[in-house]
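Lecture 7 notes. Example A: sequence first, then its structure tokens.
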Amino acid sequence: MAKAAKKVIRRKAGTAAVKPASKAATAAKKPSSPSFIARTAKEITATFSDSIGLTAKVAAALAKENVNILAGTGYSASGMRRKATFTLIVDNLEKAERALERIGADEIQDSMVILVETENKVGALEKISKTIADAGINIYYFYSTTSSGKTATCVFKTADDQKAIKVLRNA
């Protein structure tokens, strides 16, 4: 029995990628209080059939295209799932999509999220998430990484990203 060709499903909200903020731009925008900066960003989510070495394959495909991963997560929920999901914020969305298609992504989507740069200190996530919750906005998911010893980058998807950014900026 012949194997059916995979069809890549693409749902795009746009193609602009996130450029890392320069230190000077970050310092210029940084208010004395609160100690974070919120802005929109685009993330790319790709699903694959799970296999040993898939993370290395994804990383190699992006590196080959000179795509920098600014934040991301990858997972396979269990051995029974047989699917792996990678969610990434990259510096070149179009190149990343092409690279992931070439290595067999089953589905690729991009969507808007909130990117919050904050001080890397105890309680920072609590302050951000409480500000969003106090505005009556549900957080669907978040992930974060430290970009240096002094700062962290948090990615949020909420029920109302525009309102969340507004309340974060006014906090």
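Example B, a different protein, same format:
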Amino acid sequence: MSVEYAIIVKNKTRLESLIERFNTKAQAKFYIERLGGNFDDYEAEHEVFHFSLNNVQTQLSKVVKYKIVERNFMPSFIFSEKNVIIVIGQDGLVANTAKYSKGIPIVAVNPDKQRYDGLLLPFDASDFIAGVESVIANQFDSKTMGFAEAKLNDGQRLLAFNDLFIGASSHVSARYKISYGAKTEEQSSSGLIVSTPAGSTGWLSSIFNMAYGVTNMFEKNLKPKRPKIKDNELLFAVREPFQSMRTQIGITTGVIKPQNRLTIESLMPLNGIIFSDGIEADFLRFNSGSVATIGIAPETANLVLK
């Protein structure tokens, strides 16, 4: 492939967001310290991130021209086949960028290994350039990763790299009719999580942790396991389903495969929502009359490996 531009995708640091909110660094510091917070941690995180970002820019400028794009512009940014994408930030930024990448190679950089787990960040500022050069030479190893898809009966759709949430936008019970396999029932719950293999170490794992924690009160020597999903599968889990005269709990979890989808019909007149990868601003309205079909999307992401 012919690479003309590298696109660096970044997010604001917590310190930058605070300064944006309070106008000055001094006012932000006063606010945090007045509430007993550790402002030094915000400054340290900011400094380490920008040290890594400057390092990335310096090395990249010797190899290829580049542009910097902030995360909040991702939904409207159009990537070209002549781009290589460098994501520098947390795992969630990789997930959010991947949805708009159109299969263009992504070199994911961990800017702070002491702070971020980096499950989706194989590179750091010291070795990422090898990944970029391999893409330019078209001799790179990569992992193809799939998306979950929520498609509404009006044609709208939403992709998720990690997970989808289907439920109510506030802390009230979600009401819906769920169909999986040969079963259909009305439910009241805290909503559903649909996870991809990439997201199985995130939100879905916290649901497993809760289930194991509660069960351990009654079952001894139970060994917790992280959820495992195959590359062409999704796993859904219903959060806190409530049984009543009208609502059932017969469908609480299941595996979604290419030939086996999940259907959910909203019974909520207001505040029904579907969002992806923890970004509540990236959502579909899911109110009465809406029917969502959850399955595996045809799109894929292309993550460059070391």
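Note on Example B: The chain has six helices and 17 strands. The mean pLDDT is 93.
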